[in-house]
């Protein structure tokens, strides 16, 4: 190994620190962000850091010795930061001095937003437990009554002088999820749910405007599912509120930007208007700009673009496109500077800053050793589906190899969602494509229909049709790589987590072309998923039906991998978190029992204490090592000039 090159190990991938939640100060001079020591336990330790927005001085830790939870937020004067630690709100000076706890609320602080004027902070906090609640807890009387008893997160105002927390009672028992103040220091836009439990089809989401001084409440009506990122903007002196939500009328189709004006006194609110209808890109984030029109991030194929809202035509106009990944965008009050997380094909994710039109300059360096790894060569792919639809994806070749060195054993790694995508960035997660490429495999990262980055119609194409055209989209890409001499047709593997796990389970029931498969937290029965998964009826939009529609036959049975278990001959590795509520463990157990019934070679691994994503350090290392070992066992050692890198 050449001097200065670092060997990629499972420990390096898992232990590399991750930057999160960058927030630029209102004056545009500073960027605060969180550095998390990834994978060290169920609750990784996160520290608050600050960097000069112009890169003129090195980043420094802002609240040494105090962990930071969630998103930090700046005071209006940019002189201090508010953040949560141990469930309570803290404040620290820009220079790192005067770090102090501001609350001791026994209900815990869920989120916070400093308000104009500097005296108040809007917080979300559940009621403190009563004496009766504490007696029940002491007696282990912890029966859960669904829809009753769960404490809603209430909107409260913290007065920084008196430390008093005052509830804004006008919202009643609605569960508050997000808040943003009008840039001129006026009222708050609030997104709320009818109950704290996330149960699509049961709870409803609504948009409100509330005056923090008087408590006067204006209801702006019901929103679509998953409403988030409310922001204010104005045109011709009329204030409006925009937000992201799932595109109606169906349950599949991704996010859109919706917008509504504040009505005249006594008038009813207007209909919420979709500002992104017809666009061939997908909004991912909305950003409020104090002295200008809003910014937004859009997934654009393999790249990410910053758009600005044109207030006259109420449409988004492209400002800047950056290769690969950009997310967690924030803007200064003037809108002249933005900060975000960004990554490209060979650069790990870090905090970047610059004007909205670019360029964005890197401020942090949280994973310096990753910059010294020899990565597999990453190529952008563009091809057509069998029906002519334009598709894209990525190919990662083994380290120091070119297409001419093929064919290689090929592992197809399918993304989750399905409303997600692969971007042209460095794939170094605990479920890493580069981990396989640096072991000598070629890795295909397809973006089939149903995903993000090509507009609403592309995303909605899988409604009731999972496993159909999206599956042939993937096969078409594999066939092209075989025809080009890149992929060895006798050494094909398929791998995926969540919806990608579903696709891997689906694949082995449709064909015997794959010599090995990995099903990570995958759906294997859509009827059971709609009944027991945390996203409930949203899943029925993918599977096409639910079990309570009658005795069947049901459409979802024809979309469920377990229905085709008798046809599986491919060896399968099943990985699942024991406490997964998104895709419950029963999905993996069902598939395991079906494979046992038909004598299919497989392993079934359950990770204790883990949810839908694997978090604990030892478990992440196990996933990485077990993945390589599984494909090495069934695909054979990749051809190389020596040992895998």
Automatic annotation (TrEMBL):
Q: Name one GO molecular function term.
A: serine-type endopeptidase activity
Q: Which residues form a coiled coil?
A: none
Query: Does the keyword field hold Hydrolase?
Result: yes
InterPro entries cross-referenced by the UniProt entry = 6-blade_b-propeller_TolB-like, AB_hydrolase_fold, Peptidase_S9_cat
Q: Per the database record, which ranges form the Peptidase S9 prolyl oligopeptidase catalytic domain? A: 431-636
| Gene Ontology biological process | proteolysis
Query: What SUPFAM superfamilies does this protein's entry cite?
Result: alpha/beta-Hydrolases, DPP6 N-terminal domain-like
Instruction: Name the domain of life this protein comes from.
Output: Bacteria
Keywords in alphabetical order, please.
Aminopeptidase, Hydrolase, Protease
Pfam families documented for this protein = Peptidase_S9
Protein name in the entry:
Dipeptidyl aminopeptidase/acylaminoacyl peptidase
């Amino acid at each position: 190994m050449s001097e200065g090159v670092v060997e990629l190990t499972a420990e390096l991938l898992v232990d590399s620190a991750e930057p999160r939640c960058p927030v630029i100060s209102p004056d545009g001079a500073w960027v605060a962000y969180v550095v998390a020591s990834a994978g060290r336990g169920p609750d990784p330790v996160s520290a608050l850091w600050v960097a000069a927005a112009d890169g003129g001085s090195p980043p420094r830790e802002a609240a040494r010795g105090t962990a930071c939870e969630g998103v930090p937020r700046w005071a209006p004067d940019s002189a201090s930061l508010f953040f949560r630690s141990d469930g309570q709100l803290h404040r620290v000076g820009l220079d790192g001095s005067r770090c102090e706890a501001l609350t001791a609320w026994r209900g815990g602080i869920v989120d916070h937003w400093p308000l104009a004027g500097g005296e108040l902070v809007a917080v979300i906090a559940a009621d403190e437990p009563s004496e009766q609640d504490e007696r029940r807890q002491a007696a282990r009387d912890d029966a859960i009554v669904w829809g009753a008893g769960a404490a809603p997160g209430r909107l409260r105002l913290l007065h920084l002088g008196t430390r008093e927390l005052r509830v804004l009672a006008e919202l009643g028992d609605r569960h508050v999820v997000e808040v943003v103040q009008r840039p001129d220091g006026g009222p708050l836009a609030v997104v709320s749910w009818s109950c704290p439990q996330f149960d699509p089809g049961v709870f409803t989401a609504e948009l409100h405007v509330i005056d923090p001084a008087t408590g006067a409440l204006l209801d702006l009506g019901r929103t679509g599912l998953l409403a988030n990122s409310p922001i204010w903007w104005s045109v011709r002196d009329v204030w409006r509120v925009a937000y992201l939500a799932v595109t109606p009328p169906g349950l599949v189709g991704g996010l859109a930007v919706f917008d509504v004006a504040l009505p005249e006194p006594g008038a009813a609110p207007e209909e919420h208007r979709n500002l992104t209808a017809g666009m061939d890109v997908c909004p991912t984030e909305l950003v409020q700009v104090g002295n200008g029109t809003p910014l937004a991030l859009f997934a654009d194929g393999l790249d990410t673009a910053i758009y600005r809202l044109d207030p006259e035509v109420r449409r988004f106009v492209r400002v800047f496109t950056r290769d690969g990944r950009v997310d967690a965008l924030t803007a200064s009050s003037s809108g002249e500077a933005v900060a975000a997380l960004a990554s490209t094909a060979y650069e790990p994710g870090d905090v970047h800053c610059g004007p909205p039109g670019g360029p964005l300059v890197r401020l942090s360096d949280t994973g310096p050793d990753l910059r010294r790894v020899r990565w597999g060569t990453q190529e952008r792919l563009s091809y057509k589906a069998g029906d002519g639809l334009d598709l894209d994806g990525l190919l990662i070749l083994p380290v120091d190899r070119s297409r001419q060195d093929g064919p290689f054993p090929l592992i197809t790694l399918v993304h989750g969602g399905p409303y997600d995508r692969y971007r042209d960035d460095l794939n170094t997660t605990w479920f890493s494509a580069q981990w396989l490429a640096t072991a000598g495999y070629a890795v295909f990262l397809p973006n089939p229909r149903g995903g993000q980055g090509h507009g609403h119609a592309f995303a909605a194409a899988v409604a009731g049709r999972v496993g159909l055209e999206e599956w042939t989209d993937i096969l078409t890409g594999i066939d092209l790589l075989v025809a080009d001499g890149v992929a060895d047709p006798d050494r094909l593997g398929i791998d995926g987590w969540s919806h990608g796990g579903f696709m891997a389970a689906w694949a082995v029931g449709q064909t015997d072309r794959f010599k090995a498969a990995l099903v990570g937290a995958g759906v294997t029965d859509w009827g059971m998923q709609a009944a027991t998964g945390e996203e409930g009826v949203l899943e029925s939009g993918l599977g096409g039906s639910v079990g309570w529609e009658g005795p069947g036959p049901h459409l979802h049975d024809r979309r469920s991998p377990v229905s085709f278990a008798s046809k599986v001959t491919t060896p399968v590795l099943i990985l699942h978190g024991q406490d997964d509520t998104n895709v419950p463990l029963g999905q993996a157990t069902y598939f395991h029992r079906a494979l046992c019934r038909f004598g299919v070679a497989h392993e079934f691994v359950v990770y204790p204490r883990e949810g839908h994503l694997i978090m604990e350090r030892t478990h992440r290392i196990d996933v990485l090592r077990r993945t390589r070992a599984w494909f090495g066992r069934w695909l054979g050692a990749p051809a190389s000039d020596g040992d895998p890198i």
